[in-house]
Amino acid sequence: MHHTIFDTPVINTLLRWFSIAFFRLAGWKIVGKLPPNAAKSVLIAAPHTSNWDLPYTLMVAFALQLNVYWMGKTSLFRAPFRGVMMWLGGIPVDRSQSNNLVAASSLAIEKATGPLQLIVPPEGTRSGTRFWKTGFYYIAAGARVPVVMAYLDYRKKVGGLGPVFQTTGDVDADMAAIKAFYAGVTGKNAGQFQVD
User: Fold this and answer.
1) Cis omega (within 30 of 0) for bond into 47
2) What's residue 150's pLDDT?
3) Residue 179: in which H helix or E strand, if any?
4) 116-120: strand order across its sheet
5) Residue 124 has what pLDDT?
6) Residue ranges per domain, the chain?
7) d(Cα 67, Cα 54) in Å, to the nearest integer?
8) Which of 9, 22, 58, 192 could form a disulfide with 49 if both were Cys (CB 3.0 to 4.6 A apart)?
9) CA-to-CA separations, 148 to 31, 127, 164, in angstroms, rounded
10) pLDDT value at position 193?
11) What angle is formed at CA 100 by the lines to CA 94 and CA 104, rounded to 5 degrees?
C-alpha cells in the first residue's frame, strides 16, 4: 500500500488532536476501539449518504489512531487532487471496468507488514439504494481478516467502531447479521439509507 497521512508522524498527531477537539466542540462522541485481532481488517463505512461522510470518517480514524485506506470513485482522483486524495488514504475504483479489485485488495491486506484497515462503503454510492454490494465481505474473507462495523450516526452524533464480525462463508446469514447492527443508525441524509 502507498504512503498516507496516517503514517506521517507529526501531521498525524496534529490531526488527531484537531479531530478530537472538533468532535468535542461539535457535540459528537467517538466510541469504540480497534481490538488487537482486528489490526488488519475491513471496516464497513455505513451509512454513506453525504459527501461529509469522508471528512468525518477520516477524523474518526485520526481520533481512534487507525491506519486506514478507503475506496472511492475515480472521479475523486482527477487532477489536480489525485495526489492529495491518495495521501489521505484513497484508492481509486473505476466502476466502469471489470477488474479484480476484491482479490487485489485481499492480497494487499495479507501482504501488509503492519496494521491496516480498509474502509469500504457497502452501498457503493451516496444515493439511496436498497442493496449492499458484497465486495467488503469477500475482501475480508479472502484476506482472512474480520469485518469491523464502523459508523457515523448523525442523529445521535456518535461515530466510531462497533462490533467485530468474522465471516462464516454463509453470505446471506452474515449480511443479515451485519445489516441488523446498522438498522438503528441514521445517516446525514436519513431517507437515503436502508438495510432491508
Assistant:
1) yes
2) 96
3) helix 171-182
4) 29-31, 158-165, 147-153, 40-46, 116-120, 68-73, 90-93
5) 52
6) 5-35+64-183
7) 15
8) 192
9) 13, 23, 5
10) 62
11) 105
Q: Is the peptide bond before 80 cis (omega within 30 degrees of 0)?
A: yes
Give the side-chain half-sphere CA count within 13 A for 156: 12
Average pLDDT, integer, range 62-77: 91
Residue identified by cell 465481505 is 137
By DSSP bridging, strand 158-165 and strand 147-153 are antiparallel
C-beta separation of 70 from 54 below 8 A: yes
Residue 129 has pLDDT above 70, yes or no: no
pTM above 0.85, yes or no: yes
pLDDT at 36 over 90: yes
Rounded CA-CA distance 70/93 in Å is 10
What's the CA gap between 49 and 186, in Å, rounded?
A: 10
138, amino acid identity: Y
CA angle 171, 177, 183 (to 5 degrees): 130
